[in-house]
Amino acid sequence: MSAIMEDPTDFEPVRVLITLHEGMDTLDAMGPLEVFSQARHDPQNKDTKAFRVIFAGAAEHITTAQGASIRPHMSFEEAMKRLAEIDVLVIPGGSHENVTKTKAQPIQLIKAYTELQKKNPARERTLMSVCTGSLILGEAGVLAGLTATTHPDFITKFEILCSNAVQRDMSDRVDVVEERYVVNNLRYDLGENEDENPYILSRKELKEQKRRKSSGGMPPIEEKSNGTNGRRPSNARKGSISLKQSNARRESVLKRANLRLGGMRVITTSGVSSGIDGALYMVGALVSDDAADEVARKMCYTWKKGIVVDGVDV
């Protein structure tokens, strides 16, 4: 049952800011946009939108690597002023060196967002990168002590960049892995039996994944949609109502305060289309599994699972 069905008078959309930079990959931004814009608390009620998405960029029009021209809703300067309003910050990849070599935006925006969380863990926030957007997070120095992934073709560059950032900032190392997506600082209860959680690869699946990697066979991530592998469904979070409750609960705030980055949820995804998977994960975590499955069905998309790190019930 969705949150809006439980209490139709007390919800507001989760606010998402997607950054834009010259040469970015179009799907890195449009994939999550499609997912978030389709998500409803009640699939039968078009007025129960779970997310509101806005764009920020450095120019009036941003040209993507594919030649598309996108007009941001606001400048980075305006985004900095309104950062406290944002629940989810999404950083697309593509032409990442346009950002990392010049230390251009959205690097300062990312740093300001993480500082906001560290200073005020009473608010629940999420930082998500798509594809090589993780290299932008790495350059910003916000991945220290976390586990992260990126596009397979950029894994080595990502490791080098993170290593340099660790030496520069004298911080903890970044554990770089090849996965569909990686989630740190979780916001839902893993449950008594982690193997029953639909977001997590079971021990059997992990063993099979390792076997495939070692044999050079099938891709490491099971290409099954969530909920079709015989496991029980998980209620996960319950949308923006639950988001409000988490922000108000004293025990939630205390737990967040003891985590890295003030308990900010950090998600990195691998190549291009994996941003869709990461966004579906967010719908499942902040709305419901059913809502995420319905979005995937509408998009005729097979949800591919990633991994989660050290889940915490807050």
UniProtKB/TrEMBL annotation:
Which protein is depicted?
DJ-1/PfpI domain-containing protein
List, alphabetically, the InterPro entries matched: Class_I_gatase-like (IPR029062), DJ-1/PfpI (IPR002818), INH-QAR (IPR052158)
Q: Where is the DJ-1/PfpI domain?
A: 15-173
Q: Give the species.
A: Cercospora berteroae
- Determine the domain of life of the protein's source: Eukaryota
Q: Where is this region: Disordered?
A: 203-249
Q: Which Gene3D superfamilies match?
A: 3.40.50.880
